[in-house]
């Protein structure tokens, strides 16, 4: 079984304080970009630098938080 990479991300915008979500990364090349699985809808998350956005539900995250 392959090792899953799960990292913590900060939900944006911060309307009701800081909300931390965990997201599984399917590909990540720091600091350029990556892809992951949306923790909200299961869609594809695309990351550029530290900014991540879901193709399905428009969830926006910042991270990963190290």
User: What structural class do you assign from the helix and strand content?
Assistant: mainly beta
Q: Based on DSSP secondary structure assignment, what is the total number of beta strands?
A: 6
How much helical structure, as a percent, in the residues?
under 10%
> Per the principal axes of the C-alpha atoms, what is the gross shape?
globular
Uncertain regions spanning at least 5 consecutive residues: none
Question: How would you describe this structure to a colleague?
Answer:
- By secondary structure, the protein is mainly beta.
- The chain has one domain (5-62).
- Helix content is 0%, strand content 53%.
- It contains no helices and six strands.
- The chain has strands spanning 5-12, 20-29, 33-37, 44-48, 51-54, 60-62.
- A six-stranded antiparallel β-barrel has the order 1-2-3-4-5-6.
- A hairpin with a 5-residue loop joins strand 5 and strand 6 (60-62).
- The radius of gyration is 11 Å and the shape is globular.
- The mean pLDDT is 90.
Keywords:
0% helix; single chain; 6 strands; 6-stranded antiparallel barrel; 66 residues; mainly beta
Sequence-ordered SSE layout with sheet pairings:
Elements lengths: L4 E8 L7 E10 L3 E5 L6 E5 L2 E4 L5 E3 L4
Antiparallel strand pairs: 1-2, 1-6, 2-3, 3-4, 4-5, 5-6
Quick synopsis:
This protein has 66 residues and is an all-beta fold. The protein has strands at 5-12, 20-29, 33-37, 44-48, 51-54, 60-62.
């Amino acid at each position: 079984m392959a090792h899953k990479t799960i990292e913590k991300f900060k939900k944006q915008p911060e309307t009701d304080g800081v909300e931390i979500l965990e997201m599984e990364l399917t590909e990540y090349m720091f600091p350029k970009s990556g892809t992951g699985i949306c923790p909200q809808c299961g869609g594809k998350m695309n990351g550029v630098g530290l900014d991540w956005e879901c193709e399905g539900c428009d969830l926006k995250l910042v991270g990963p938080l190290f």
